[in-house]
Design brief:
The complex is a heterodimer. Chain A is built from 17 helices and 6 strands. By secondary structure, chain A is mainly alpha-helical. Chain A has a single domain, classed as ABC transporter involved in vitamin B12 uptake, BtuC (Orthogonal Bundle). In chain A, helix 5 packs across helix 6 and helix 8 runs antiparallel to helix 11. The longest helix of chain A has 35 residues. By secondary structure, chain B is an alpha/beta fold. Chain B folds into 2 domains: 166 residues, P-loop containing nucleotide triphosphate hydrolases (Rossmann fold, 3-Layer(aba) Sandwich), CATH 3.40.50; 75 residues, no CATH class. Chain B contains 9 helices and 10 strands. Chain B has a 6-stranded mixed β-sheet, with helices on both faces. The longest helix of chain B has 17 residues. Chain B is globular, with a radius of gyration of 19 Å. The chains are: A mainly alpha, B alpha/beta. The interface between A and B is medium-sized, with 30 and 40 residues. Chain A: It is found in: Cell membrane. Chain A: It is a multi-pass membrane protein. Chain A: This is Branched-chain amino acid ABC transporter permease.
């Protein structure tokens, strides 16, 4: 299907079904029930799942295939956001030109940064990318360029926002009722939702989410094609043995630079989509913690695998939201069945791991995965799959053993 | 005609003169061995030929063109392939994938961006790689992880990968180092077969005299960075200077 092999098509179809049915699948608990806080089927969070999925897919093309660990990928995400917001300010609120510009801007910067950083490999490459990202963060945070040209470019720590007096050449500066127009795709607003109430469940279908999901599926499809292409083979060869590559008449630099730019463009695309859903861009998106997050996502899910980065992105964003939401009141209601003293003790113990302390939980989960599942969640899935298969094998061998033993008795 | 001409090549590492003044001609379609005791400069010379090192003095001409100042991948594209002392293959990839990479390098040059095409559709590359694997009797290991093969098979694969590019000059750096006798003999037979079937020049660095005398048509003896003598294997065997500098030591050991 679409030029994919059988098992790749199957994977793609599974991901497509999951992404398109997410508003149902992520809302398993009825509204108002005690478990409803674990629902993730609301547009904001689902958008973050797929947008960070795109970011991680792109990062994995670089890190998973070539082994070059970029520690400054969030810079491209931030650049994408700034590019998109500028397009909303100057051209129109249609998201297509905004996303196109964000991809181009990220690609151009990736070309420059990659050209310099890829002169080194290993830890030195990581440090160079980190240094570039931090420089760009500092420039954006202080709006250095803006101060130079006399008009805000990144608008410093406030972040770049839309205003009523933006030109928007192809659109309108302000709606008739005097508010800022909303981001849209040829008139269809990103914010528009369709609510479906079934029994106690409330399913929300957001147009914005579906735009993100379709873009994610396209990015995923392109990533599969790259994985299975001769180009992808060369990238894996770079990771495996650069010396042999050089002595096989292959110049590794253009390969690594090409994938660095592609990967940066994926990040720019994610940044552009982020701004399309919520039209503002801040420097904090470029900070090194954001770069670290995509590394975590990719490793947690399984670097070098197709589906791993998407899983990792979903996993981290889900727990970030859910754990951050749990406060002491929720904890008290959980442990209410215990005697008072014990209840307070339990709440005190669990307290540092939830709410603002969710990073602690995430850190522990990351450690456990890296120690016990070096291949990430994908490896976990494979092990579970193998466990079932082995159990089947064992069952049949036990049966055959039993049959063997019965034979002499029968004779 | 000499396909490889090394003239007055010298290389110094700090206080050590690794190569003094090396002159060497390798005739086209011959098998030329370079021998010498440890530290004689054999590997340094080889590294100067493939672009890993740049000599301080002298010139290296391959087929009338200078190789000096060119990158290893450019020199390879000129038609020089190198087999390493420890087999350098793509350990993370399967045997078939290993074999396809030089086929791509031969067809597409040092870089080509075919990011959305499928490998499965590259019929000519797949065919050529399979053909090479069959010729090298590796076809039954096609989908094996190449890192998990035996040393002898890795060596076979590396040689196959070099041959897939149809090089004009094949450089071998101690191709039988660390091999069992049986593997060594297999490698000798393989190299003999390659020499018979192909228009190829082979230059070989080797410690193992058995390998050298069963393959080489000409031998250069290197000692302390300078060629001591160059002659046919029969003359080398009886050469007093060589016995003194090299063979004598080996026999005594």
């Amino acid at each position: 299907m679409f030029g994919l092999k059988k098992h790749d098509s199957r994977l793609f179809i599974v991901v497509a079904v999951l992404a398109l049915a997410a508003p149902f699948l992520l809302n398993p608990f009825p509204d108002g029930s005690a478990m409803a806080q674990f629902n993730a089927g609301y547009p904001d969070l689902m958008q973050r799942f797929v947008i960070f999925g795109i970011f991680a897919i792109g990062f994995n093309l670089l890190f998973g295939l070539t082994g070059y660990l970029s520690f400054g990928h969030a810079a491209f995400l931030g650049l994408g956001s700034y590019g998109a917001v500028w397009m909303f300010k100057l051209l129109s609120m249609n998201i297509i030109p905004a996303i196109v510009l964000s991809v181009i801007v990220a690609g151009v910067f990736a070309l420059i940064i990659g050209y310099i950083s890829l002169r080194r490999s290993g830890i030195y490459f990581s440090i160079l990318t980190l240094a570039f990202a931090q420089m760009m963060f500092a420039i954006a945070y202080s709006d250095l360029i803006g101060r130079f040209v006399g008009t805000p470019i990144t608008n410093g720590e406030t972040g770049l926002q839309l205003a009523l007096d933006d030109p928007r050449v192809l659109g309108i500066s302000a709606t008739p009722d005097g508010s800022i127009p909303l981001t849209n795709l040829f008139g269809l607003e990103m914010r528009s939702v369709f609510n479906l109430e079934v029994g106690g469940w409330l399913f929300t279908f957001s147009f914005g989410y579906y735009v993100c999901a379709v873009v994610m599926l396209l990015s995923f499809y392109v990533a599969i094609r790259i994985f299975r292409s001769p180009f992808g083979l060369m990238l894996r060869a770079v990771k495996s043995n650069q010396q042999r590559m050089n002595y096989t008449g292959l110049n590794t630099r253009p390969y690594t630079l090409a994938v660095f730019v592609i990967s940066g463009m994926y990040a720019g695309l994610a940044g552009g989509l982020m701004a399309s859903m919520d039209p503002l861009a801040g420097a904090e998106r470029m900070q090194w913690t954001a770069s670290g997050e995509v590394v975590l996502m990719t490793i947690l899910g399984g670097a070098g695998t197709l589906i791993g980065p998407v899983l990792g992105a979903g996993f981290i964003k889900y727990f970030e939201n859910i754990f951050a939401k749990i406060n002491d009141n929720v904890l008290h209601s959980w442990f209410a069945f215990m005697p008072d003293g014990l209840e307070d003790l339990m709440v005190t113990i669990v307290h540092p791991f939830v709410g603002k302390g969710w990073h602690l939980t995430l850190g522990i989960m990351f450690m456990l995965v890296v120690i016990f599942l070096p291949g990430g969640l994908v490896e976990g899935g494979q092990r579970i799959g193998r466990l079932f298969r082995r159990r089947d094998d064992k069952a049949t061998s036990v049966e055959s053993d039993a049959a063997e033993q019965r034979k002499p008795a029968a004779e | 005609m000499a396909i490889l001409e090394v003239k007055n090549v010298g290389k110094r590492f700090g206080g050590l003169q690794a190569l003094g003044d090396v002159n060497l001609n390798v005739e086209e379609n011959s098998c030329h061995a370079i021998i010498g005791p440890n530290g004689a400069g054999k590997s340094t010379l080889l590294n100067c030929l493939v672009g890993k090192l740049i000599p301080d003095t002298g010139s290296v001409m391959f087929d009338g063109q200078s190789v000096l100042g060119r990158k290893p991948y450019e020199i390879n594209q000129m038609g020089i392939s190198r087999v390493f002392q420890t087999p350098e293959i793509f350990g993370d990839l399967t045997v078939m994938e290993n074999m396809m990479i030089p086929c791509f390098a031969k067809r597409d040059g040092s870089f080509r961006m075919h990011a959305l095409e499928s490998i499965a559709h590259e019929k000519d590359i797949v065919g050529k790689a399979e053909h090479m694997l069959e010729e090298m009797k590796l076809i039954d290991k096609r989908d094996m992880h190449s890192a998990s093969m035996s040393r002898g098979d890795k060596r076979r694969l590396e040689i196959a990968m070099c041959l897939a590019q149809d090089p004009r000059l094949l450089l071998l750096d101690e191709p039988t180092a660390g091999m069992a006798r049986a593997d060594t003999n297999n490698t000798i037979d393989l190299l003999k077969q390659i020499k018979e079937e192909r228009d190829i020049t082979i230059a070989i660095i080797e410690h193992d005299m058995h390998v050298v005398f069963s393959l080489a048509e000409r031998i250069t003896v290197l000692a302390q960075g300078t060629p001591l003598v160059e002659d046919t294997p029969d003359n080398i065997k009886g050469h007093p200077k060589v016995r003194e500098a090299y063979l004598g030591e080996t026999q005594a050991a």
